[in-house]
Design a protein that fits this description.
It contains no helices and 24 strands. It is mostly beta strands. A four-stranded antiparallel β-sheet has the order 2-1-24-23, with no helix packed on it. A four-stranded antiparallel β-sheet has the order 3-4-5-6, with no helix packed on it. A four-stranded antiparallel β-sheet has the order 7-8-9-10, with no helix packed on it. The chain is globular and about 65 Å long.
Length: 284
Amino acid sequence: PRLVYVRQSTDQNIWRLDLSRPGAQAAPFSASTQREWTPQFSPDGKRVAFESNRSGSAEIWVSESDGSSPVQITSMGGPMGAGTPRWSPDGRRIVFDSRKDGQAEIYTINAQGGAPQRVTNHPANDTVPSWSRDGKWIYFASNRSGQAQVWKAPVDGGEPIQVTRNGGHAALESPDGKWIFYDKDYSSLWKVPVQGGEETQVAESLAGWASFAVTVDGIYWNPGGGQGSGSSVQFLRFAGGKMETVASLDRGGNGLAVSPDNRWLLYTRMDQLGSDLMLVEGFR
């Protein structure tokens, strides 16, 4: 007997663009022959957390703000070990999701590494976490109600609270602590007051759940265009509501992050995607 299968190879890297220089060209920030994704600047802008499977499993890594000196801080193991890191407001801890125990759960870990602490414990999938600006809550997406919604759980333990009612996924709280921005169906950008209320659309098109970033001055997002084609980065300024195009990306643009000083843009780019047809003789 023979077995024929397709083996895919993916080389996905993080690139960096200087937003203070109009027309500047992006340069590699963190590159390997494996997958680098979901970068996030620390609150002081000096470090970056990201997901990579360069060690053999998807884990959380932390580097300097220019991509140098990367260090692996999790060892969850498995093909989907750890992902979607977000910094605590004081920069001391990182929250992430992991499927180490089967279903996806939320964990926190010291930014220098150490033993992770579990935040959620539920048969549903809990993913894409982030911190509230006061550091007391962790937002996450969960299908525990039967539909993907944004929830929040106390950092130190307690019963989670449902935040959205009409669908929601990856959430980021605004620096002033008044709004929660989130994606819906991986394709549009929405917001809801932190205290609850009307859920309103911010942008009707979004490249993916990881393709927006919230800073003190406003919100950046990539409206789409596909991993293999050009796309743009839009910026909506909180003061005055002015919207403008701040960057053009040659390929991709999901996994978006912006430094606290609004100078550096990090994004994930698919640099190579291929597949091979494999044949196994004498398969049993």
